[in-house]
């Protein structure tokens, strides 16, 4: 039988999942009370696929029974995070202005390639790892230009307001840097073409919503190191 809270939003999560981290940051930023149910991705409970998410992926939200939409399910990290932003507009996770919202969505779309690159570094052929890492850095250079164009002062994509653009990317940058460290690849903090990204990442990582929800390095190493391609 599915585990859920009747009074609070139920957040189905996995500690080291970057997509879950997105949703967790959104919930914390918007101050939405929730109960977390940890789903073991190595041994998913049968009820999760049957009752919560047919795709068997995390994160997912189950809305509280007491609300107008009691028991409804929301899946996929971007959809879940934007639901939170719409539920709590005072959080400013999404701007009110239509053009600014479009810019946030474009930045999110542009940043999605980081996921491809950290997976290629992790699971691709060993002889291609350095090239795949450099492709990831090239994506960061493009994002750096978008950040500079939007707000050169920062510290966040929109400037002073932390938004969906920030919470979507920071967990992915964490993984790119972590996986790069397995092979002694690291970002050059003195590289002016990614300087805005470097300062942005420091600002994101200093937020309480990030610090309260991020997995430890030890937890992430335990999760990702066994996935390294040996071919």
UniProtKB/TrEMBL annotation:
GST C-terminal domain residues: 97-227
Start and end residues of each GST N-terminal domain: 7-92
Keywords: Oxidoreductase, Transferase
GO cellular component: cytoplasm
Protein's UniProt keywords contain Transmembrane: no
GO molecular function, one term: glutathione transferase activity
CDD domains named in the record: GST_N_family
Keyword Transmembrane helix: no
Cited Pfam families: GST_C_5, GST_N_3
PANTHER family, sorted: GLUTATHIONE S-TRANSFERASE OMEGA, PTHR43968
Protein name: Glutathione S-transferase omega-2
Organism the protein comes from: Zancudomyces culisetae
